Amino acid sequence: MESDGNYPKPRWLRDLGRFLPLKSQFVLTGNIRDLQTHELGGIVTATPLNTVLGAALSESGYADVLYYDPIGGFRVLERPDGAASDAAPVFNSLGLTAVNGAAAAGPDLLAATLERLVHRDGPPIALIADFASRLIIRNDALSPAEHQLFTRALVLSQTARARPLGPNRAPLFNTVVWILDKEGDLPDWLTIDNPRLRHIPVSNPDRGARRALAPSLVRSLPGAREAAAEILRAAESDLVDNTEGLLLMDLNAIAQLARSEGVAVGDIGDAVRRYKVGVTDDAWRKIERGKIRAASNFVARRVIGQDHAVTHMLDIVKRAATGVGGTRRGGRPRGVAFLAGPTGVGKTELAKTITELLFGDETAYIRFDMSEFSAEHADQRLIGAPPGYVGYDVGGELTNAIREKPFAVVLFDEIEKAHPRILDKFLQILDDGVLTSGRGDRVYFSEALIVFTSNLGIYTTDGAGARIANVTPDQPYEEVQAKVRDEIDAHFKLVLNRPEILNRIGENIIVFDFIRPAVAEQIFDGMIANVLKDAATSGYQVSIMPEARQALRELCVADLSNGGRGVRNKIEAHLINPLARALFDMESKGPFVIRSLSAGAITTLLIEDGL
Questions:
Q1: H/E element holding 270?
Q2: Are 46 and 248 a contacting pair, CB within 8 Å?
Q3: Which of 67, 85, 153, 394 has the fewest C-beta atoms under 10 angstroms from its C-beta?
Q4: Does residue 6 belong to any structural domain of this protein?
Q5: What's the rounded Cα separation, in Å, for the pair 401 and 399?
Q6: What is the pLDDT of residue 126?
């Protein structure tokens, strides 16, 4: 059963060939519903497991291979050379009556057939019992017929005798192969500690299997006949690199999708993307280059005083749009950014602004407040509850959202507040670009831009465990950046013991600066302009005199510990609330002039007609 060529024979197939002379029964579990690599005439194709298994048994010396499933009953598989087997003598020797090449199904008939098959004289034969998990209704409460069937299988596994055959006189049993969803689907007393039964797991296809299959798939794509050899080799590599974690059945489907939609051989990566996320157009390629090129001013108007953060974030967006930076093997996200810094400095605002830049709507991002995911089992909210638990049919909030909008900015706010168990999910997203939902569906993040925000590094604990400031506004930005980075490194490496997450984020940790006085002045002026604009939109003509404006400015920028959000809160308390109170009592809509303000527990404004 070993191949003489370079074709990587699957391990499960090698194990089967090795133990055929030693064991009378086998159990195959794992990736049994996928296609399997199969070499025929020097070409590797993806073939159903029962066909590969039947061919392997025939090549090992079995005269005939029977196949059984609970619905179709018994049939004799074709030989590897394509020649049809004469099923009548086989069925007659086993006491089966064939109709149109198949014999009836049923547990009693299967039990009787096992008895005749195992003790049958002549050339060895094998029986593949597929969907064997469906032969039992409840494993812990077998019916009499089920108990009789598997008791007989247990006895036959011990009483079977191998006979030397062929030129090298290798012994072979009349073998039974059970194909199961999982090993525990059969009674434990049959499968555990049974020296005559061998369990062989069928693993998911590895890179070698995908590499072996790639040439035949690539050569079936549009334009492959006319393509140069280097283009074909590049397409094969793209197919292998971009399908990590997929089944061979998926690779076959990708090739079929490419043929049906006319995807050229050189664009096989596009066919993989379409198959994974179900989107025909690559939205990243459709982003207006001119819009991104002129984005610095647009973003800087909303995220003030953080030029370095804006530049770094736009670099990530440009890299996502151009694809520069190497292959995203395994379908990793288009981009990842970790925004760290004090509160109220524009981290969430930057994520909103980038979303508006890409989608034209700042609310189009997918946001998760990670303070809501601090419990140990909160990850079930993201990916969905497992089978048997409440909410299983609903799915996960994150997986549902990405399935609906694969091209998205996904914002995880205040990531340090999430339970450490959830970080394992982020590792899957950053490393493989995929999450498996509670329902078993694979959800791909290959078209998403992932943004984390965090206040890590702003505070630390002293020797007594008290919370103290790690960085302060009087420190230069370079010092703030270094201290915050060091604290983030220590948190992931020493506190969480998750250095691998930090490695996946890489150099995309963007540290925001404090809101400095000069920047606070700009924020104040912008917010005042917006308040007056909003009033004008509502029909009120309001202006503010320099004296009142200066008094308000001093109130708003005196304490910058809460950043721009603190400035906004002060404006609400000392301008918006008293202005709304005053305008509500006015008979006309102006024009009005704010002459002065009197701050206190309740701020009051001196407002006069501006005529």
A1: helix 268-277
A2: yes
A3: 394
A4: no
A5: 5
A6: 95
* CATH code, domain with 105: 3.40.50
Last residue of a domain, one of 181, 202, 223: 202
Name the one residue in this structure whose structure tokens are 């993040």. Answer: 445
Burial classification of residue 350, based on how many CB atoms lie within 10 Å of its CB (0-12 exposed, 13-18 middle, 19 or more buried): buried
Residue 5 in any domain: the answer is no
Kindly state whether residues 223 and 191 are assigned to the same domain. no
Nearest to 335 by CA among 352, 317, 350: 317
Cα gap 345→184, rounded to integer Å:
56
The reply to whether 53 and 140 lie within a common domain is yes
CA distance 596 to 290: 45
Nearest to 6 by CA among 49, 37, 51, 48: 37
DSSP 8-class letter at 384: -
Question: Distance between CA 555 and CA 574 in Å, rounded?
Answer: 8
Distance of CA 248 to the CA centre of its chain: 18
Q: Determine the residue type at 31.
A: N
Same domain as 232, residue 95: no
* pTM of the complete model beyond 0.85: no
Instruction: Mark whether 410 and 368 lie in a shared domain.
Output: yes
**Helical H runs in 393-451?**
397-404, 420-432
Please, are residues 205 and 247 in contact by the beta-carbon 8 Å criterion?
yes
484 closest CA partner among 518, 457, 452: 457
Task: Compute the mean pLDDT over every residue in the chain, rounded to the nearest whole number.
Answer: 87
134 within a domain of the structure (yes/no)? yes
Q: Which helix (H) or strand (E) holds 216?
A: helix 207-218
Closest by CA to 553, choosing from 545, 604, 590, is: 545
Query: Would residue 504 count as lying in a domain?
Result: yes
Q: Which two tokens stand for residue 172?
A: 């072979």
| pLDDT above 90 coverage of the chain, percent | 44
Q: Which domain range does residue 20 map to?
A: 11-202
DSSP string, 578-603: HHHHHHHH-SS---EEEEEEE-SSS-
Number of domains in the chain: 4
User: Residues 480, 532: one domain?
Assistant: no
Those residues with Cβ within 8 angstroms of residue 48's Cβ, 6 or more apart along the chain or in another chain: 35, 36
341 within 8 A of 322, measured Cβ to Cβ: no
Q: How many CB atoms lie within 10 A of CB 30?
A: 17
Torsion sign (Cα): 556, 560, 563, 565 = negative
Separation CA 599–CA 604 (nearest Å): 7
In angstroms, the CA 40 to CA 90 distance is: 26
* CATH code for the domain in which residue 602 is found: 1.10.8.60
Q: Do 135 and 88 belong together in one domain?
A: yes
574 and 481 assigned to the same domain: no
Q: What is the pLDDT of residue 2?
A: 40
542-563 pLDDT, tens per residue? 899 999 999 999 999 888 888 8
Tokens matching residue 209: 């299997």
Do 68 and 136 fall within a single domain? yes
* 8 Å CB contact between 528 and 549: yes
Domain boundary among 169, 202, 235: 202
pLDDT of residue 564: 86
Mean pLDDT, rounded, for 560-583:
89
